[in-house]
Amino acid sequence: MTPLDVALAGLALLVAAALLASFSAPRLTAAVSALAGLTVLGAGVAVLVGAPTSALALPWLPGGPAEALRLDPLAAFFLVPIGLIGALGPIYGLGYWRRADHPGSERPVRAGYAVLTASLVLVALARDGAAFLLAWEGMALSGFLLILAEHGRPEVRSAGLIYLIATHVSTLALWWFFARVQAATGVFGFAPLPAGDPATLGTVLVGLVGFGLKAGFIPLHVWLPGAHAAAPTHVSALLSGVVLKVGVYGVLRATTLAPDLPVGVGGLVLVLGAVAAVLGVALALAQHDLKRLLAYHSIENIGIILLGLGLALVGRSTGHPTWVALGLAGALLHVWNHAIFKSLLFFGAGAAIHAAGTRLIDRLGGLAHRQPVTAFAFLVGAVAISGLPPLNGFASELLVYLGLFDAAQHGAPAVALAAPALALTGALALACFVKVYGVVFLGAPRTPEAAAAHPAPPSMRAPMLALVA
What we know:
Layout: H1 3-20, H2 26-48, E1 54-56, E2 69-71, H3 73-96, H4 106-125, H5 129-147, H6 154-185, H7 200-215, H8 224-230, H9 233-257, H10 263-285, H11 290-318, H12 321-356, H13 367-370, H14 372-385, H15 392-409, H16 413-416, H17 418-441, H18 448-451, H19 458-468
Antiparallel strand pairs: 1-2
Helix pairs in contact: 1-2, 1-4, 2-3, 2-4, 3-4, 3-9, 3-12, 3-19, 4-5, 4-9, 5-6, 6-7, 6-8, 7-9, 8-9, 8-11, 9-11, 9-12, 10-11, 10-17, 11-12, 11-15, 11-17, 12-14, 12-15, 12-19, 14-17, 14-19
């Protein structure tokens, strides 16, 4: 059995979990979803440690490549966070989104979570444009329905509508991207673009818009804060920790199709990254809603990933392999790191919200005495997202710093200007999470609801501790 067969087995289990969700079997659904996620995770790890890549042809797809699905190392890299958060989220949801509290939406949320995870797996595996767009649309629509879990609230409906518009603009841009690739190569899918073709730059830029909308690049981020705040918290963890990353995955695929991108493309990605990192954390500092605050930190961390990717693109265009290695390693490692610590932070925030009944930071307080495990887990996530040693956020940001410093030493001061932006981002992130942790978990409760908060149930604590580890 090849790793692709294992990933497809995980996909079948996710379909089974979505069907099981229509019955009164929340624990069985969570168990099947968790097994599916671990199966997908195992397939990705197998390729990353040396198992051969494998492909599957789907001849009924019109105009696509012979290999419609392929599990290569880049796809495997992104299957790891998809499988990990896809496995932990349904377990967390057993305690967070119970039928007693949400009788009308508990089953649809369980089913939608499995469908969204399955769509993410297909997005990573698809090489044919038609298969990719079908999976992309499945991801878009299942995400939309999950965001509308509490559709009785006007702000939730508004957030869902904005998300739906943004995600379909993204789909249209990607259809245009694949059409341009087909015009240049004859293949409607991810096919290498010809060198020296003046249309290549335009094709890549269209891809950047389509994938950048999903990744939440500034100024394409308008859907992100509202959607992440409106969705159930374990869904927010999947949206922030994983769904945004498939936008980054698409940017990597699109830029590697072009053999001779001008240096300006890497410079543009560097500028977008610096703007997203600084503005994301600055906007987070101004938030009073705990989930919106975490959503803006997602924009910040996408900016950090873009800084690494932009450095790698500049290095490729100018013949500096060290910049490529350090930039790409930092960007990819931060994809994993952000998926882990941001999901942990959303899980911790969800435990606080579930116990106190409010997302407003100023109405919490003193939760460390009532939820010690949650407080510890949130603290670990806060240290990691602030880029402090010895945790994982520091490791990936250090690689990007080293690449930027190397650029400064080799006559590229414009590239090195991204380093102060990254430093400012880290300082502001630390200030933000010192404030958040102090207000939410330390001191005295500010409301009777916070004073009466109860510890999170084991089904919520176990996923948090797994991510802490």
